[in-house]
């Protein structure tokens, strides 16, 4: 076994085939390092894993796109048992000449299904944003809906499970009343509300913070918002998207439900950073104490994409690593201090916290 392979997540270890060989190949194709993959090691089990793993990780459409991009002609699929022949060149090492046609067809179908589903979601998003504009509710598009339209070359390349929007906390009750007319309210969770539109199967999350908890930032200032000219929507600036998605990524990684789609989002965004963006990112992570989540995100990304260091300056990464270590130490000090509090102090602390939350509900509702 090649020790240099990117290890597959533990959830795949019981599957038939060389899971790390396949996971490593997917990561390399996505980061345009497909020439480093030894496709000759792939057997039937590995090809089947490639299709199922890419789909499970939410990167099936993008894998199809990347493989298609390195080709030099039109791939003609003759039958499910014949290779997806037609695209041999020095860049892909003849991968499509080795890949079973059924696998290629699966990836191709994944792209078209995602494109169709995303068209439905983005159409619904347009209707929601129009309603928000009429109601004078400021809104920023988050996560997949923003990424699919701004950083990916085609909206069908980034699967979306739901729609996520960010609003000011002062507009929560107004938004709730507006959406209740067309959506079923499911639950309030942390710093967001969850709605569902059954006839379209659309899940909608309304956020008023970016941290996923009750401790959140104020509504993002105008200076940190980009207007996507093509879609005509407000999205977070690149540094803010990285900060937000880093927190999301590290939170899910601790629950062992990390998927490659989220890792790829950050890989693409980091590649878009300008020098000004890097400076803004440093300020945001320090001002909002996000150094630790950024450092943890970086470890995850570097495991998947070792070429990342070349995208950003070593000084930038060194500064963030130091910031992350300081933030982790600060968190540990606060944690130990709270653990040392006498038990008699916990009831008044809990009472004050509840009073704060009740006051918030009264002022927003």
Distance separating the two termini: 59 Å
Task: Categorize the overall geometry.
Answer: globular
Sheet having the most strands: 5 strands, mixed
Q: Mean pLDDT across all residues, rounded?
A: 81
Strand content is: 5-15%
CATH architecture label of the largest domain? 2-Layer Sandwich
Question: Can you walk me through this structure?
Answer:
Helix content is 53%, strand content 9%. It contains 14 helices and 7 strands. It has helices at 19-30, 44-56, 60-69, 95-98, 101-134, 143-150, 172-179, 238-253, 260-271, 275-287, 291-304, 308-311, 314-339, 346-364; strands spanning 140-142, 163-166, 184-189, 192-197, 202-207, 225-228, 233-236. The strands form 2 sheets. A 5-stranded mixed β-sheet has the order 1-2-5-4-3. Strand 4 and strand 5 form a beta hairpin. Helix 1 crosses helix 2 (44-56) and helix 8 (238-253) crosses helix 10 (275-287). It starts with 18 loop residues before the first helix and ends with a helix. The model is unreliable at 72-93 and 333-338 (pLDDT under 50).
Features:
365 residues, Beta Polymerase, domain 2, 2 domains
């Amino acid at each position: 076994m090649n020790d240099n392979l990117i290890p597959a997540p533990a959830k795949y270890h019981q599957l038939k085939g060389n899971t790390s060989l396949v996971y490593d190949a997917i990561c390399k194709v996505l980061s345009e390092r497909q020439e480093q993959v030894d496709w000759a090691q792939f057997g039937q089990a590995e090809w089947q894993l490639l299709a199922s793993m890419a789909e499970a990780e939410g990167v099936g459409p993008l894998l199809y796109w990347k493989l298609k991009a390195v080709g030099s002609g039109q791939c003609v699929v003759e039958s499910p048992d014949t290779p997806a022949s037609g695209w041999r060149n020095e860049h892909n090492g003849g991968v499509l000449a080795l890949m079973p046609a059924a696998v290629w067809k699966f990836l191709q179908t994944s792209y078209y299904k995602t494109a169709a589903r995303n068209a439905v979601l983005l159409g619904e998003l347009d209707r929601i944003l129009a309603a928000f504009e009429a109601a004078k509710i400021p809104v920023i598009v988050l996560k997949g809906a923003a990424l699919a339209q701004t950083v990916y070359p085609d909206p069908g390349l980034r699967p979306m499970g739901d729609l996520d929007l960010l609003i000011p906390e002062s507009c929560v009750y107004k938004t709730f009343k507006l959406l209740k007319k067309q959506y079923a309210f499911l639950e309030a969770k942390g710093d967001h509300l969850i709605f569902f539109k059954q006839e379209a199967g659309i899940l909608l999350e309304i956020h008023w913070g970016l941290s996923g908890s009750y401790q959140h930032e104020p509504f993002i200032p105008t200076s940190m918002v980009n207007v996507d000219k093509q879609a005509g929507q407000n999205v977070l600036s690149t540094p803010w998207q990285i900060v937000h998605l880093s927190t999301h990524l590290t939170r899910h990684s601790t629950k062992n439900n990390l998927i490659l789609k989220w890792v790829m989002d950050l890989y693409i965004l980091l590649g878009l950073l300008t020098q000004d963006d890097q400076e803004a990112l440093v300020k945001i992570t320090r001002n909002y104490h996000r150094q630790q989540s950024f450092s943890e995100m970086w470890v995850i990304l570097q495991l998947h994409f070792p070429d990342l260091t070349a995208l950003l300056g070593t000084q930038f990464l060194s500064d963030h690593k130091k910031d992350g270590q300081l933030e982790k130490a600060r968190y540990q000090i606060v944690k130990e201090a709270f653990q040392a509090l006498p038990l008699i102090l916990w009831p008044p602390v809990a009472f004050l916290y509840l009073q704060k939350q009740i006051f918030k509900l009264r002022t927003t509702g």
